[in-house]
């Protein structure tokens, strides 16, 4: 038996300790886990530096930012866990009650998933978020991060397990797969009977591999080709602020904008202002500027790189923005439906009728009117931390918080009825 198989079996057994755990006991564990993260901050940062040093020359600066931890980020990780303490326990809620004519009382009640496996890349904050969400929702978790963050993930899991130990829960409730080879990922995808739910968080290659190879239930997450459509009736200053935030505040994340669509009637005015905000101004200030990939029409108004068809189907996760001019909201919706990954899209307009047409026409998990796509996030939606952003429609969609991490069963009370 290899180490990953042993880990899965240990986690499966440990999960039984949560079956009888009360909400208070789970919250005590979460509180202890958050405290342990902060108590072990120096060790976590030390290991993170080792990962960052190994990443030099291997991944770009934007992706290094996803990997980097700071004191502030660790405090935020701990705070995300503490927010879960304040949220209602999702387990044991009666969703429906039906009394049948034959006297049977049927209740539909929420129950834990069991064992949740998460395969993810780069971002070590996912380690604490996933572990905390799983525990609050009554499940054990098996974490498999990328090789670029293995030292950091080890340190984080060690701290979280320390928190579990202080409240008398088995440390095996949080398992870390230390084998970062492709084989270990495949093993999680095919761990029938040991894994109840698999959640991949990463690039298109990882998501595709899980969809094609998984034999356990799998939720697709993450890939975000997010669009912002600037309508002819938009407040252009507002549009610039929103676009700048959506593209540059953190370009490596899945809710960052990758495509800007501009109505033809305002292109001549808006595009030069956009180029000033995204390219010229940051360049003058010594900050990263955005490379604009322009279709033929937008290239008439501003300089940039000629866009290829592939640019409108790429999640750049970088300071790159594909730009196209469209004839109106119908054309914008048509473009988004052809190129979106179903994550987040936004329209900037003062015309409510146009906004309604956009919302009705776009089939993505989150659709914004006059706001940045960067809000597609569990914490921003009031869920505390999140397990990921689901871009599918079954069984969860959008930010996955506690409510999305439970299943349900039917409890039937009888008095001797037979059929």
UniProtKB/TrEMBL annotation:
The record ties this protein, via InterPro entries, to:
Ald_DH/histidinol_DH, Ald_DH_C, Ald_DH_N, Aldehyde_DH_dom, G-glutamylP_reductase_CS, Glu-5-SA_DH, GPR_dom
Mind telling me which CDD domains this protein's record contains?
A: ALDH_F18-19_ProA-GPR (cd07079)
Query: Where does it primarily localize?
Result: cytoplasm
Q: What is its EC number?
A: 1.2.1.41
GO BP field: L-proline biosynthetic process
Identify the stretch annotated as signal peptide in this record.
none
Look up the record and name the pathway of this protein. Answer: Amino-acid biosynthesis; L-proline biosynthesis; L-glutamate 5-semialdehyde from L-glutamate: step 2/2
Q: What class of enzyme is it?
A: oxidoreductase
Q: Which Gene3D superfamilies match?
A: Aldehyde Dehydrogenase, Chain A, domain 1, Aldehyde Dehydrogenase, Chain A, domain 2
Q: Which GO terms describe its molecular function?
A: glutamate-5-semialdehyde dehydrogenase activity; NADP binding
Show the GO cellular component annotation of the record: cytoplasm
Q: Which residues form a coiled coil?
A: 20-47
Domain Aldehyde dehydrogenase, chain residue ranges per copy: 8-277
Per UniProt, the keywords (alphabetical) are:
Amino-acid biosynthesis, Coiled coil, Cytoplasm, NADP, Oxidoreductase, Proline biosynthesis
Q: Which reaction does it catalyse?
A: L-glutamate 5-semialdehyde + phosphate + NADP(+) = L-glutamyl 5-phosphate + NADPH + H(+)
Compartments where located: Cytoplasm
Q: Per the similarity annotation, which family is this?
A: Belongs to the gamma-glutamyl phosphate reductase family.
Q: Tell me, what does this protein do in biology?
A: Catalyzes the NADPH-dependent reduction of L-glutamate 5-phosphate into L-glutamate 5-semialdehyde and phosphate. The product spontaneously undergoes cyclization to form 1-pyrroline-5-carboxylate.
Q: What is this protein called?
A: Gamma-glutamyl phosphate reductase
Q: Which organism is it from?
A: Candidatus Allofournierella pullistercoris
Q: Which gene encodes it?
A: proA
């Amino acid at each position: 038996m290899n180490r990953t198989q042993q880990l899965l079996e240990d986690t499966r057994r440990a999960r039984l300790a949560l079956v009888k755990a009360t909400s208070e006991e789970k919250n005590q564990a979460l509180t202890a886990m958050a405290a342990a993260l902060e108590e072990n901050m120096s060790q976590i940062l030390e290991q993170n530096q080792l990962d960052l040093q190994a990443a030099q020359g291997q991944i770009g600066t934007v992706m290094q930012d996803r990997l980097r931890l700071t004191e502030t980020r660790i405090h935020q990780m701990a705070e995300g866990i503490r927010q879960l303490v304040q949220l209602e326990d999702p387990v044991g809620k009666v969703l429906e009650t039906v009394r049948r004519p034959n006297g049977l009382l049927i209740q539909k009640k929420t129950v834990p998933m069991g064992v949740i496996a998460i395969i993810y890349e780069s971002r070590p904050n996912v380690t604490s978020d996933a572990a905390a969400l799983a525990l609050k929702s009554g499940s054990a978790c098996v974490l498999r991060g990328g090789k670029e963050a293995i030292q950091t993930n080890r340190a984080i899991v060690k701290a979280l397990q320390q928190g579990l130990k202080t409240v008398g829960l088995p440390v095996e409730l949080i398992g870390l797969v230390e084998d970062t080879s492709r084989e270990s990922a495949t093993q999680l995808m095919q761990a029938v009977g040991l894994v109840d739910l698999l959640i991949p968080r990463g690039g298109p290659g990882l998501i595709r591999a899980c969809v094609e190879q998984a034999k356990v239930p799998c939720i697709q997450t993450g890939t975000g080709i997010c669009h912002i459509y600037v309508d002819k009736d938009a407040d252009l200053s507002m549009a610039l602020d929103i676009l700048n935030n959506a593209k540059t505040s953190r370009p490596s994340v899945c809710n960052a904008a990758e495509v800007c669509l501009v109505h033809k009637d305002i292109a001549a005015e808006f595009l030069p202002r956009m180029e000033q905000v995204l390219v010229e101004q940051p360049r003058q200030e010594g900050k990263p500027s955005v490379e604009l990939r322009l279709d033929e029409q937008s290239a008439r108004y501003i300089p940039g790189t000629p866009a290829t068809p592939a640019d409108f189907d790429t999640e750049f996760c970088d300071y790159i923005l594909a730009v196209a001019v469209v004839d109106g909201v119908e054309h914008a919706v048509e473009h988004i439906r052809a190129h979106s990954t179903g994550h987040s899209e936004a329209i900037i307009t003062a015309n409510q009728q146009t906004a309604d047409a956009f919302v009705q026409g776009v089939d993505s998990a989150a659709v914004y009117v006059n706001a940045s796509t960067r809000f597609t996030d569990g914490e921003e939606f009031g869920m505390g931390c999140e397990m990921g952003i689901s871009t599918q429609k079954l069984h969860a969609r959008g930010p996955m918080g506690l409510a999305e991490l439970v299943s349900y069963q039917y409890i039937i009370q009888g008095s001797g009825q037979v059929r």
